[in-house]
Amino acid sequence: MKIIIPEKYGEKVARGFENPLCKVRRVEGAYEVDCPIDFGVTRLVLDMTPRQFARFIREVKVKDGFKRREGDFLNFRPRRGATLTLKMARSEIELIRRAAKERDLQLRTYCRSVLLRTALKDLGLLRE
Amino acid sequence: MVEDLVNLWRGKGVKIRFPRVDRYRSVAKLLMDRGFLIEVKGNFWVAEFPVDFAIHRSHTDLSPREFLQFYRDLEVLNGYKFKEEDYLVSVRPKRTRKVSFRVSESEYAIMKFAAEEVYKLDFSGWMRVILRERAMRALTAEAKRRRRLRNLGFI
User: Fold this and answer.
1) Which of A25, A33, A105, B117 is the most buried (most CB within 10 A)?
2) CA–CA distances in Å: residue A86 to residues A89, B27, B35
């Protein structure tokens, strides 16, 4: 997913998007943030007033993904273009379904988050 | 709570049955120590477990010949048995259910890389191992937490 931030917001705003997974680079007239997973920023981190934040949300563009505002949060989600299918035993599914229920998550959301978090942690890209 | 967890998979896991003879007593003890549901039914021991498992000869008191005989005597319901070398018997439940979920291409690439480079496993095997292990860990922790609360009189 590529998040394109107009150049007028300056490097300071673009740097607010930087983390071990998201790389910021400058392209013609904009900053481009390359982000492989779901990502969110808050209005406070970007140091904007509510009005500035609303305008920023309108002007920021997302390629291969979606943006969504939730109050003072702006969340980005990459387009989910791949479907993973896994065959399991009934007993295994029951265990996983219960673990998902304990966390108030749907089975598929639980599977996605557990696998991704484990992969990121094992690759040293996510701290506890 | 632990009883609840057992009820979750009772009757849905893989069942094994082997003759109730003295030489297989060490196998029955090994399975019991691992937390299997094990029962005596007539002249057989019957054990049930929710996930794949393996029995290594070195963990039993069986000689190589007795271990091969054990493999032949072992009956598996709702699953398969297979021998890997002469000292390891693996049992796998039938995989009859499918789970599907969508991920982005980049998430897929990260997960596949972790599976192949960190765990040296094929991708589907890695997904199965991680999901199973995390679920078991979460449920065991929750069971312990509830037991503690119950002992303290909160629930």
Assistant:
1) A33
2) 10, 31, 26
Q: Measured on CA atoms in the order B100, B106, B107, B113, is the torsion positive or negative? A: positive
pLDDT of residue B2: 55
Q: Rounded to the nearest 5 degrees, what angle is found at the Cα of A77, between the Cα atoms of A106 and A56?
A: 135
With an 8 Å Cβ cutoff, is B114 touching chain A? yes
Architecture field, domain B2-93: Alpha-Beta Complex (3.90)
Beta carbons of A14 and A6 less than 8 angstroms apart: no
Question: What is the ipTM for the molecules in this complex?
Answer: 0.86
Instruction: Give the predicted TM-score (pTM) of the model.
Output: 0.82
H helical segments located in B14-122? 25-33, 64-73, 105-113
Structure tokens at B14: 């893989």
User: Which residue in chain A has the smallest CA separation from B114?
Assistant: A119
